[in-house]
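Reading a protein record of the kind used here takes only a little practice. Think of the row as the fold of the chain written in a discrete alphabet. A record is reproduced here so that you can trace the correspondence yourselves:
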Amino acid sequence: MSSFNDFALNPILLSGLERMDIRTPTPIQKATLEASLQGRDIVGLAPTGTGKTLAYTIPLAQRLLDDPPPREKGRPVDPSRRIRSLVLCPVRELAQQVAEEGRSLFRGSVLRSKAVFGKSALRPQRDALESGVDLLVGTPGRLRELIDCGALSLAHVRQVVVDEADRMLDMGFLPQVRHLLERIPDQRQMLFFSATMPKPIAALANDFLDVPFRAEIGANTAVGHIGQYSMHVPDSVKVPIVLSLIKDQELRGVVVFSRTRRRAGWIATALRRNGLSVGLVHGNRSQAQRQRAIERFSAGELPVLVATDVAARGLHISAIETVINYDLPVSTEEYVHRVGRAAHGGGVGNAFSLVSPREEDHWLRFRSVAGTKVGRIDPPPYEHWMREVDLERLQKTRDGEKALKNFERKAKLREEQNAAKGGRRNTKGSRGDKSKASGKKYDPEDHRSSSKPDARHGGRKKKKKSDANANPKFGARGQVTRRLGKQRPVSKNERPGGGVRKVK
């Protein structure tokens, strides 16, 4: 099917798609729309940026328009009965994005879309639910909070979407997802969408689905229009390399991904100290701070956004042109999501991964899921961005590596020379030769048992350690100790000095 008209959609939805300048369905939309409109459970897997959000938002909107909530004459619709579709998202930014796409699609109809998420005021979200919502998008934690306080009921939900399903069903979100699904009627339609689906998570998803329709369009791979490159460098030069990539090449729309929130903070600080305007997004930032950073980056006010993996999932930011993996992610699935952020607005994007020596073994796992060939390239000139102290340390490291290589080369050459001589060693001048020349057999025990006094100790024999510790005492931790007179505690009528002695 080459057009949305082939799916017999409601005219309101066709008008909404036209306003959004979307006229042709993407491959994942072609593959899943018909089965979704029939009410079947769906597992949809496709790379990032291929239209998965609309692939489930369109059938949800169609079902909401076809099955309006019951209404008594002369009375408004009960707000709890209006919530008939639920979308679960792992992060706040993705929930906001899905709700906004729903509003654009619903424009001109009575349908309403709302996002609820944590780390924001609870009262405005309660008020929005009381005024009526048809499509509710939320993070599991805030949804549970609204249920516990009596502001939300899922008794009338008939369609449930789990976006970024592999993340939602891992050990962190699975208990909360189960808790929410227990409050939804069993007669429901389930739709799972993601760019990656590991086998253990896929097996777990089958527990929630009833004979699902499965559509897989290049899953577990990055999209082909993104150039992927790796640079194998020490961890200490990663910041200068990032500065060289951004400032020397005058890049904009750059997202730098780090492994932890703390590392994201000091990467952003280092870039700011070198004259870059940087936005920061991670789990410890408030919702207002995260939203403001994303909005300024999207508007082109900030050329760089430093983030953890909270910004790697599902966010459609057309301003992103380049992705830099400052740290490799924990899982291969996160790598696919990170790289997929580039060129979401169209065109060609680039992704650079900075691989430190301790990440070399870990890097081999990512190359198998990259989808396209990852080119290994040399880093750009970066020494002019380094501090003097770091430059000196780097030079010492390079000198040490050079000396080690020379030593290994000479050792290998000596081994080859010895092997060429039949393995015989040159023993000229050894003790064995001297003893053989004198006609006396060399015995190492004669030297060890010599009774000559040791010149280093003034002509006196060195006292054996066992003699010095003839009367050992065991300390508190079971170790043998010997308490000397100088070390005993000061008692009454005594004072410390060059030892302890009694007062006259």
